[in-house]
Design the sequence.
């Protein structure tokens, strides 16, 4: 597969140009990559009005994913905002969402003036979609609806997208999936990618699970969806995106197409088997593992006698840096690009002595009364206050670290005792509330 963006820039570098354009480093090496860092000069195309090398590269990506593929140089966060804008512009007035949505979903709701209807799960980071609860919400209104879920979630749980899709079809709803952690799922021996399982529109962060620079992501629109979405995708991305997208990121997305076509599928298939064997070894030793995502190992640390943060510290002392850790979980993301990391991880975990289990359940996330819409609360005057004095106040902005970037409370909600306990449990001491 050709790499039109990379090829153009290589030719440009070989021509030894006088760079009388942005960026100001002029291709002179300070870190080492500057010569590849260009702007929308003649022949380089333009991301949001692509009709040249970027369009060609996106067409290559579309062939690989089997649906319309549009690049983002600002991660899935940009794609999430574009998805909600497209859905609302199409006439969707009712949004049903799993509560473990990324904070970018909430910011998109504020920008697009959407007040979602929530589906709740047991914990903060995962949300097992109850088909009965979803159907109960779908059948109560004739308004044009969209269902928004996260799959895989941060802990590696993969939703039953096929079953959810069937419900959406039954009630004429559109299914929208944040698949930020699952770009590689398309290239398993049997695809688990949302658009292959019935989703109408989704995003995925290439940089999370494919060999792409941070910020590289895709907006995908399923075949058969109204042409409105394909025709307006670029406009939606441009509305929220920078006019100066990184050509370094675009090159990495371009180069990844060639890698995926030529070797990734076979390498991935082999590595997934190795990861499954590693999971069996760890489970036999006594580790409690969560989720079904093939390239993620999530440990419920308390069953092994540790907090997740304690296990992370032990691993870091051995030069192994996890994706995420909190009191409950240790999340480790793997890639066939570095297969040796798996054996190093298993060796380190096997060396940790098991202790008595810690019996301390995480607080359950509960619903709260919405006093303001997300848009009203985000744009209201706010003040930073101590969580200890927050009960009864209206949350103005989601307060959450990244990772995992899943809000405990929703902007516009009245903070309850339950929310206060959750903030305290996850170590959040101050939050932004609407000023009284």
Sequence:
């Amino acid at each position: 597969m050709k790499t039109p963006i990379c090829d153009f820039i290589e030719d440009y570098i070989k021509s030894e140009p006088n760079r009388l354009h942005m960026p100001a480093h002029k291709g002179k090496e300070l870190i080492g990559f500057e010569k590849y860092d260009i702007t929308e000069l003649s022949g380089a195309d333009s991301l949001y009005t692509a009709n040249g090398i970027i369009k060609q590269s996106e067409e290559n990506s579309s062939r690989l994913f089997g649906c319309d593929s549009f690049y983002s140089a600002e991660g899935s966060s940009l794609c999430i905002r574009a998805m909600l804008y497209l859905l609302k512009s199409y006439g969707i007035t009712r949004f049903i969402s799993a509560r473990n949505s990324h904070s970018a979903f909430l910011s998109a709701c504020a920008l697009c003036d959407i007040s979602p209807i929530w589906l709740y799960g047991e914990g903060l980071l995962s949300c097992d979609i109850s088909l009965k609860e979803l159907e109960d919400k779908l059948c109560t209104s004739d308004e044009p609806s969209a269902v928004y879920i996260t799959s895989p979630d941060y802990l590696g749980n993969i939703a039953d997208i096929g079953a959810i899709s069937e419900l959406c079809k039954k009630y004429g709803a559109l299914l929208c999936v944040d698949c930020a952690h699952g770009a590689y799922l398309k290239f398993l021996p049997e695809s688990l990618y949302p658009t292959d399982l019935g989703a109408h529109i989704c995003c995925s962060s290439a940089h999370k699970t494919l060999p792409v620079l941070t910020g590289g992501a895709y907006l995908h629109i399923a075949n058969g969806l109204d042409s409105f979405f394909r025709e307006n995708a670029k406009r939606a991305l441009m509305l929220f995106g920078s006019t100066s997208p990184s050509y370094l990121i675009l090159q990495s997305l371009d180069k990844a197409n060639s890698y995926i076509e030529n070797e990734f599928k076979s390498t991935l298939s082999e590595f997934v088997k190795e990861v499954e064997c590693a999971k069996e070894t760890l489970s036999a030793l006594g580790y409690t593992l969560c989720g079904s995502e093939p390239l993620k190992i999530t440990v419920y640390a308390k069953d092994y006698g540790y907090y997740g943060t304690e296990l992370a510290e032990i691993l870091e002392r051995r030069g192994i840096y996890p994706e995420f850790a909190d009191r409950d979980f240790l999340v480790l993301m793997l890639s066939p690009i570095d297969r040796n990391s798996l054996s190093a991880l298993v060796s380190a975990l096997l060396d940790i002595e098991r202790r008595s289990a810690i019996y301390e359940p995480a607080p359950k996330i509960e619903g709260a009364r919405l006093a303001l819409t997300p848009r009203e609360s985000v744009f209201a005057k706010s003040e930073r206050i101590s969580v200890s004095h927050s009960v009864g106040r209206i949350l103005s902005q989601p307060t959450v670290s990244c990772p995992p970037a899943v809000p405990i409370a929703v902007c516009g909600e009245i903070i309850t005792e339950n929310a206060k306990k959750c903030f305290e449990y996850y170590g959040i001491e101050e939050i932004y509330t609407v000023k009284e």
